[in-house]
């Protein structure tokens, strides 16, 4: 029996999709009745509209989440009951993989083939954290005080505000939702105004899974209104934020008014370090995946490639040759290899950085333009772009471009490679490509970054902590460690 492989995925509807937002298990418009558009970056046309949530809507959502936490059915559930709901959500995500993936592709222009894999992986997050839901416990502590028993309990924080960006809305929401709910918190999620759709599709599955009213709420709207109101709300006990370092600073300032906890997953300018003894074709694969996946719009993008001077020319030749073969096209086509950037403002920003790179004297080795072929002309496409002869003090090497632009920088020895790698405000990730395992291990403690990949790039897992040093963030997501970020400890003294 032959199976046909789908070549192009389609939206399961025509016309502009009207979304409502999700508060207290109900689908509602915003209090003001206003809406905003979501533009498909491949066609440049509006494909969906979502409610313009503002402070009043955030207030309603936080109220629902607070009631659910304090007195609702959720507050009486056991860990294993919470775990069952999370597992059910995982099953529903798996059953609805295509719709979730398509919604995100049409919202932000990343590839359907990448999104299908990413959505499939999300059930793993549900199962992993469901497993923890009934294993979050304190300990008995042998205190020196006579006739006393002391023990601790780990309690949820209360209402968690999750503020997420446009580049991976579903994945970055699930990184927060799974541990937050496993630990017994409730949530208000504020998606990016660029990409509300996939999180609203997820909310339908949250409702279908049977989470009680108010446990998860989604308020769509702009950062400076809805996001700001959520960060400032006195009943929110934690803000879990992923986004730019600039917004991260504001979140810290605003949430500090009422001493809410924060975790921040911010930007990056990650170095991909290629030594002279690296397996070169493998390293070239890692560099391509590191910078051109999701059109370079990932926090972990390997946007600075540090190449040993003795192999620089050979590396450039291989990289340029492989980059020239990358197929740009409709992100809903299974054979497209690079999609668009997510929206017009980002498109302009990336093209501006390409101009800056040329003005700074970097050598444009490949790409640099908006393609003009008929199929691509309406989309926010940018050719995969390689700059050679980059100095690390150039703006293109220091500032996060968040697009398909890679900077190649030469180094002469290990010491210089480390100095260049760490000469950045960021510290999210790094990679080392070498066949010398001792050298690789020597590099690890010297690199100031939250993740180091050795002879690979971009690997993440629900079981492994992810987060940044320096301006790349505070706190970690994923792994058992993250449960500490969603619980607080109570110390109990018993007179015997
Ligand atoms: P952004 O900071 O502009 O927006 C992120 C979210 O914050 C959006 O929902 C936005 O509406 C909201 N927001 C904006 N202003 C706000 C305010 N004043 N108060 C409260 N909320 C506000 O970031 P972006 O452009 O959507 O995303 C790209 C950035 O995200 C990049 O810097 C990227 O590196 C970073 N990112 C980091 C990670 C990570 O795990 N470290 C992952 C993905 C993206």
Automatic annotation (TrEMBL):
Entries under PROSITE patterns matching the protein: ALDEHYDE_DEHYDR_CYS (PS00070), ALDEHYDE_DEHYDR_GLU (PS00687)
Pfam families registered for this protein in UniProt: Aldedh
Catalytic residues identified in the record: 265
Domain Aldehyde dehydrogenase: 27-492
Domain of life: Bacteria
Alphabetical keyword list: Oxidoreductase
GO molecular-function terms, A-Z: oxidoreductase activity, acting on the aldehyde or oxo group of donors, NAD or NADP as acceptor
InterPro entries per UniProt: Ald_DH/histidinol_DH, Ald_DH_C, Ald_DH_CS_CYS, Ald_DH_CS_GLU, Ald_DH_N, Aldehyde_DH_dom
Keyword Oxidoreductase applies: yes
Keyword Secreted: no
Family listed: Belongs to the aldehyde dehydrogenase family.
Protein name, as recorded: Aldehyde dehydrogenase
Highest classification ranks of the organism: Bacteria, Bacillati, Bacillota, Bacilli, Bacillales
């Amino acid at each position: 029996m032959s199976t046909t492989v789908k070549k192009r995925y389609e939206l399961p509807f025509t016309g502009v999709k009207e979304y409502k937002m999700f508060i207290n298990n109900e689908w509602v418009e915003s209090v003001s009745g206003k809406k905003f558009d979501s533009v498909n970056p491949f066609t440049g046309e509006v494909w969906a509209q979502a409610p313009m949530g503002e402070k009043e809507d955030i207030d309603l959502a936080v109220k629902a989440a607070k009631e659910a936490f304090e007195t609702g059915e959720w507050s009486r559930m056991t860990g294993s009951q919470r775990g069952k709901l999370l597992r059910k959500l995982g099953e529903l995500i798996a059953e609805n993989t295509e719709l979730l993936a398509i919604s995100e592709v049409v919202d932000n222009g990343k590839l359907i083939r990448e999104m299908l894999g990413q959505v499939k992986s999300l059930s793993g997050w549900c199962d992993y954290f469901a497993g923890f839901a009934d294993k979050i416990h304190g300990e008995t502590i042998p205190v020196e005080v006579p006739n006393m028993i002391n023990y601790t309990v780990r309690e949820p924080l209360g209402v968690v505000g999750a503020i997420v960006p446009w580049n991976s809305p579903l994945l970055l929401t699930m990184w927060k939702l799974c541990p937050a709910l496993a630990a017994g918190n409730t949530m208000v999620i504020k998606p990016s105004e660029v990409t509300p759709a996939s999180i609203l599709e997820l909310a339908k599955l949250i409702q279908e899974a049977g989470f009680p009213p108010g446990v998860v709420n989604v308020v769509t709207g702009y950062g400076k209104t809805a996001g700001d109101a959520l960060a400032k709300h006195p009943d929110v006990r934690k803000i879990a934020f992923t986004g730019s370092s600039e917004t991260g600073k504001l979140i810290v300032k605003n949430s500090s008014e009422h001493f809410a906890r924060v975790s921040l997953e911010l930007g990056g300018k990650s170095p991909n370090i290629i030594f002279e003894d690296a397996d070169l074709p493998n390293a070239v694969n890692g560099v391509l995946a590191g910078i051109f996946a999701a059109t370079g719009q990932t926090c972990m993008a390997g946007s600075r490639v540090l190449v040993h001077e003795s192999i620089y020319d050979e590396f450039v030749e291989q990289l340029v040759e492989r980059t020239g073969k990358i197929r740009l096209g409709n992100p809903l086509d299974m054979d497209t290899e690079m999609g668009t950037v997510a929206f017009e403002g980002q498109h302009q920003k990336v093209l501006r950085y390409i101009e800056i790179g040329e003005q700074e004297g970097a050598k444009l080795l490949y790409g640099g333009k908006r393609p003009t072929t008929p199929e691509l002309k309406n989309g926010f496409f940018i050719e995969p772009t390689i700059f050679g002869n980059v100095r690390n003090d150039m703006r293109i090497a220091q500032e996060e471009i968040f697009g398909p632009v890679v900077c190649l920088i030469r180094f002469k020895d290990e010491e210089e490679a480390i100095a260049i790698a760490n000469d950045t405000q960021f510290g999210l990730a790094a990679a080392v490509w070498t066949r010398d395992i001792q050298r690789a291990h020597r590099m690890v403690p010297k690199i100031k970054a939250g993740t180091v990949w050795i002879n690979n790039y971009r690997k993440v897992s629900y079981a492994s902590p992810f987060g940044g040093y320096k301006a790349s963030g505070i706190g970690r997501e994923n792994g058992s460690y993250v449960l500490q970020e969603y619980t607080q400890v109570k110390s109990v003294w018993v007179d015997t």
